[in-house]
Write a structure and sequence with these properties.
about 180 residues; alpha/beta; Uracil-DNA Glycosylase, subunit E; four-stranded parallel sheet; 7 helices; 7 strands
């Protein structure tokens, strides 16, 4: 068992002035902290799933990942700014300080927040939920630890959350 340590979130939020859907995880895994980017564990299904939903190639580099997210009017960050944690274990998270979502919300027209897993959802509800009127949904975690959800089942659950933006982006594309 890894020892619990105080860790500060050092990955900046990813968004731009066109971001409409904010995807929040709980806190970066050890692999994500090592790579200094979101969903860095090679078995995390996040990048595969987003690519599948938007009918794109799975991104390999950080630049490709940024392009995928921003190109589909999304934003990425995490609920937690700092905490005590043992390795990557969400269940070990203690002494939480939440991120200030105003950093994104004041600069992007976010209209929906998607929470990647129950831990992110519970932490959001506890520390942030009552401070925003933005619609939010708790979705199944893309973590490899969530083996109860097959990749296809996971993709279908998430796909529903993106249906409105997928349709609008398709209309924009057709209109060009």
């Amino acid at each position: 068992m890894n020892k619990t340590e105080k860790v500060i979130h050092l990955i900046p939020p990813l968004y731009n002035e066109r971001s409409e859907i904010l995807v929040l995880g709980s806190f970066p895994s050890v692999k994500s902290r090592e790579t200094a980017f979101f969903y860095g564990h090679p078995r995390n299904r996040f990048w595969w799933m987003i690519a599948e939903i938007f009918e794109e190639e799975k991104p390999k580099t950080v630049e490709e990942k940024k392009k995928l997210i921003l190109g589909h009017h999304l934003a990425l960050w995490d609920v937690i700014a700092e905490c005590e944690i043992s390795g990557s274990s969400d269940s070990s998270i203690r002494n939480v300080k939440a991120n200030n979502l105003g950093i994104i919300l004041e600069h992007a027209p976010i209209r929906k927040i998607l929470l990647n897993g129950k831990t992110a959802g519970n932490l959001f509800q506890k520390y942030i939920g009552d401070k925003t009127a933005i619609e939010y949904m708790i979705l199944p975690s893309t973590s490899p630890a969530n083996a109860a959800w097959s990749p296809d089942r996971l993709k279908e659950a998430w796909k529903e959350a993106f249906i409105d933006i997928r349709e609008r982006l398709r209309e924009e594309y057709i209109g060009k």
